């Protein structure tokens, strides 16, 4: 079975978890291990690059969702990565899945690591993009970088992600503009933007993660694809190298002249590599 729709027009669904409604979208084949996408700081359903979602969904069921208190999902967004992971696990179980692949980007990559540690049998494979381990270099500075770049973007009438996710070279600037335009392709049934409270709670969780003692990642034996740009300012690229070195069964890809959003700048290459990894 092939994809019958694109992320641009995939309907938004809901599932009830302990009396709270969680919003999600799904597309791709009905068979096989689903790929759960775990989102970044401040992101809702509409912040996933449709080229990445559609690319993975050509041969895999893709499920994107708003975790507790984010976007249209009800409740209060947690202030810790561990609590976000517990909510993600509850969401996966609520959909009836007993094993999934995880694609965690940035904050979502922190969450993915905790899920793999807490529920190893729930996870088959992981893709960790633009992310790093607990206590990783520079992660505790995400708040300062985010606020400064957001101010710069506002003053120059740009989307903050153009500064936060992409390099300021000619290639990086062009890729940033193209990415932001792709995020606008969906014109109907768009998600609610993240609330100020949820955004602050996520910043608190990231800051705490950056100050934590590093986890013993040798306990994570799942196959892992680690990906990033070579010039990530938000979660410095050295964290990706560190992850790949410390995870027993990991492979690393670093995209040249790319930042935090390397997988979006190089979406064609990333999708091809991700599909090979998931199917190997």
From TrEMBL:
One of its GO terms (molecular function) is hydrolase activity. This is Alpha/beta hydrolase. Residues 34-264 form the AB hydrolase-1 domain. InterPro entries: AB_hydrolase, AB_hydrolase_1, AB_hydrolase_fold. Keywords: Hydrolase. It holds the Pfam family Abhydrolase_1.
């Amino acid at each position: 079975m092939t994809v019958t729709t694109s992320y641009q027009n995939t309907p938004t669904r809901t599932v009830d978890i302990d009396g709270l409604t969680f919003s999600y979208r799904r597309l791709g084949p009905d068979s096989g291990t689903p790929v759960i996408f775990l989102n970044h700081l401040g992101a809702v359903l509409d912040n996933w690059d449709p080229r990445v979602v559609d690319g993975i969904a050509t041969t895999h069921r893709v499920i994107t969702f708003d975790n507790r208190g984010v976007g249209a999902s009800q409740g209060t967004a947690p202030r810790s990565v561990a609590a976000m992971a517990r909510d993600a696990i509850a969401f996966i179980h609520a959909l009836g899945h007993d094993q999934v692949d995880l694609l965690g980007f940035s904050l979502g990559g922190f969450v993915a690591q905790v899920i793999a540690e807490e529920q190893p049998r729930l996870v088959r494979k992981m893709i960790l993009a633009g992310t790093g381990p607990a206590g990783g270099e520079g992660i505790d500075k995400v708040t300062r970088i985010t606020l400064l770049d957001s101010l710069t973007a506002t003053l120059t009438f740009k989307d903050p992600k153009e500064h936060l996710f992409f390099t300021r070279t000619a290639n990086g600037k062009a890729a940033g503009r193209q990415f932001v335009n792709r995020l606008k392709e969906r014109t109907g049934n768009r998600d609610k933007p993240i609330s100020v409270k949820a955004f602050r709670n996520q910043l608190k969780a990231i800051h705490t993660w950056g100050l934590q003692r590093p986890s013993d990642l040798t306990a994570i034996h799942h196959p892992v694809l680690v990906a990033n740009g070579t010039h990530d300012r938000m979660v410095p690229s050295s964290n990706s190298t560190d992850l790949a070195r410390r995870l027993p069964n990991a492979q690393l890809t670093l995209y040249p002249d790319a930042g935090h959003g390397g997988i979006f700048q190089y979406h064609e290459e990333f999708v091809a590599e991700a599909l090979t990894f998931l199917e190997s």
